[in-house]
Every structure is written in C-alpha cells, then in structure tokens.
Design the sequence.
C-alpha cells in the first residue's frame, strides 16, 4: 500500500482523481496532515487539520500556501466524506475524517514509487 508521503501534492492538488476540485482540495489537506503526523493513513480530527494547515501557510509550504490565496479553490469536507472517498468517524464536521480504501486507491495516480 502507498504511504501518504508518496502522494505528490501540487497546485491544484490531486487533479482528476475525485471528480470535483472541492473534494480533491479537502483530500489534499487530509493527505498533508497524514504526511506530517506519522506518514500513515489514519483518521484526522479538525484540530490536527487546523494545526497542519496553519503551519504550512505560515511556512509558505505548497500547495497550501497557494491554495490559501485562491478564492476559487476551497475544500469541501462534506462532499469528500460522502462515503465514497472518505467518511466521518462520528458526527460530521466535529469528528475525525478518514479515507476509505477507494479514496486511497483514487490517489495512486499521484504516488511516487
């Protein structure tokens, strides 16, 4: 299985993998949190996401630094967590979010060997 660190995040991230940009941007944020927090696929809670996003924006780390300045490129976690590519582990928007096997499979095209 691929690891989060193998996923290449560009601007815009994960293009053409999940049928909607808003879903792909949300997925990229979760991938980035998984990369930073142990390089494993695990549920990510809203606090973890916020810390990683803030740190990357403050450090100028791409793709988050550019996405933060683009008003048309916004994540939609509800759209992502429709059960196809990801799911909430509890109450939507308050619990952690995790990728489904189909979500990880969809991102394989952006993985380096």
Sequence:
């Amino acid at each position: 299985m691929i690891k989060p660190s193998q996923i290449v995040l560009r601007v815009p991230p994960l293009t053409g993998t999940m049928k909607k940009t808003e879903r792909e941007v949300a997925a990229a944020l979760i991938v980035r949190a998984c990369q930073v927090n142990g390089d494993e696929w695990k549920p990510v809670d809203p606090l973890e996401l916020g810390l990683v996003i803030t740190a990357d924006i403050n450090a100028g780390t791409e793709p988050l630094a550019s996405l933060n300045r683009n008003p048309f490129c916004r994540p939609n976690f509800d759209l992502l967590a429709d059960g196809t590519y990801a799911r909430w582990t509890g109450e939507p928007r308050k619990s952690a979010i995790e990728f489904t096997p189909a979500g990880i499979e969809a991102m394989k095209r952006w993985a380096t060997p």
Remarks:
- The CA atoms of residues 44 and 58 lie 20 Å apart.
- The beta strands are 86-88, 97-99.
- The first helix runs from residue 21 to 36.
- The helical segments are 21-36, 46-59, 64-69, 77-80, 101-106.
